[in-house]
Every structure is written in C-alpha cells, then in structure tokens.
Amino acid sequence: MSELIVKPAPSPGPDGTLLTVTPESAGWEYVGFEVVKLEEGGHLRRETGENEVCLVLLSGRADVSTREGAWPGIGRRMSVFEKTPPYSVYIPDGDFYEVKALTPLELAVCAAPGRGSHPARLIGPEQVGVETRGYGNLERQIHNILPEQEPADSLLVVEVFTPNGHWSSYPPHKHDRDALPEESLLEETYYFRVQPERGFAMQRVYTDDRSLDETLIVKDGEAVLVPRGYHPVSAPPGYDVYYLNVMAGPSRTWKFHNDPDHAWIMTKPKEA
Predict the structure, then answer these.
(1) C-beta separation of 51 from 113 below 8 A
(2) Which spans of this chain does the record mark as coiled coil (predicted)?
(3) DSSP letters of 150-215?
(4) Stretch 35-62: mean pLDDT, rounded?
C-alpha cells in the first residue's frame, strides 16, 4: 500500500479516534488531522496546546464548548452526502475543547500551528461559502469552511463533493513552493467518503520530475497525504465522492500552479 494513504483503525479507540495524521507521522511540519467517531452520549475533551483547531461536524449533532464559549445542540446533517454546509468550531492554541455527542457523531479535527490571534467561534452553515466550480464533468460543489478570507493563523479548510463520473482538484494543480505571489507552500490532507461505501475514488499525486508519481485507489474513510506535487481526483461512474481538505504552510494563502500540460482545459469551449 502507498505510504500516502492513511487507513482508519478497525474500530474507534477509547476516545473515539478512528484515523490520525500528525506532522511526525506525515513527515512534514504543519498539518494535523484526525477523525473521531462517538456514539450518542460519547464525550471528548482535549487541550489545543500549540495548535489552532477547527472541528468540523461531518455528521451528527453535539454540544461543543471551549474556555470562553459554548455552542449547545449544533449540527444538522446526518450524512455528508446531504450536501448541506456543516457546523464547525474554531478554537485557538492555548485553549481546550469539549464535545458531547447528542447523536452518533463523526467529527474531523483539523490542526495547525497557532499564534493566539483569534478567539474561539462557531462557524455556522450560513457562514460557509458555497460555490459550484468547473463545467461539464469537471463540475463539483465546494464548501469553503475556513478560507483565507476568514480569520485563522494557519488553517485552511474546505470540503468538496464530486459527482460520479466527474473529476475534481482538476486541472491538476500544485502548491508546493514558497514562491509568493506566484505559488504558496501548503501541505494538504484529503479525507474521503464514498457513496455507496463499497466504491472507491482515484487520486494521482505526481511532481514535474516524476520523483513522486503515484496513482492511488482510495476507499471510503481513508485519507491521502499530499506533501508536494499535483493531485487530481476522479469519482468513478456509480460512486459519488466527498473529501475534506486541510491545508497549512508558512503563509496562509492558497496560490496554486496548474500543470502546464493540462491548463488549457480551463478554457471552456465556445458554444457552436
């Protein structure tokens, strides 16, 4: 199996943790990511330490509290494939968060270095930017949960719905050079859900010199590490694909570079 694929545990750990990516396990510097599954009445409490955290309620409802804020009864969708924007909570470094599941809960814990610049806050569905990107079989739905226009120190968080038979993160693009204003260096994780669950997604991760060149078969509940290179995704016919992206790097801005061999695809053909 590719070292870029992170598989979930067979069952959640004592605190509900199902999947974990740390900077140490990924061999990089900024991004941490976890998936926690709690049964109704389950409880999670953690310190943020030196990281800021964005909790994304992938599915289910919960009470969430931090040192200076509490948000009871948040959450609406029971499946990511309802395609409605999620509830999320931003928590700065040097704080804590406490989560009590009111229903079965799937929670994404997105982390990156913080500087204590912003208070904890709720990010409600109405604050999530929704857009349709691409055309034809490049079309996909985007939920901008924590984009660069919204306050945070390091984190960028977005979720993408790719219909069956479509491509996303396409044309292939990369953001692996600290060369602003042309390109930013951002590590990235992809957390995949597939419907029906027996299906799969395909993702290619490759560099210009092909020192990294892998084509991955990704199953429901798995994550992919993108340390560098281009990283397009394909949803096979019959299987809708969801993924949650977490990005962070030395500068909190998303400036990408399209693969020059395929950049022409973004020029939509004129109607006859």
Answers:
(1) yes
(2) none
(3) S--SS-EEEEEEE-TT-EES-S-EE-EEEETTTEEE-EEEEEEEEESTT-EEEEEEE-TTSSSEEE
(4) 98
Counting every residue written for the chain, the total comes to: 272
Beta carbons within 8 Å of 122's beta carbon, 6+ residues apart = 69, 71, 74, 87, 88, 89
Nearest to 26 by CA among 196, 239, 189, 233: 189
pTM over 0.85: yes
For 97-109, what is the mean pLDDT? 98
Q: Which one, of 257, 270, 221, lies nearest residue 35 by Cα?
A: 221
Q: What is the pLDDT of residue 68?
A: 87
Please tell me the predicted confidence (pLDDT) of residue 269. Answer: 58
- 207 φ/ψ sector (left φ>0, alpha ψ -120 to 50, else beta): beta
Please provide the DSSP assignment of 234-248 as one string: E--TT-EEEEEEEEE
Tell me the pLDDT tens digit for each residue of 171-182.
Answer: 999 999 999 999
Residue from 31, 29, 5, 33 nearest 20 by CA: 33
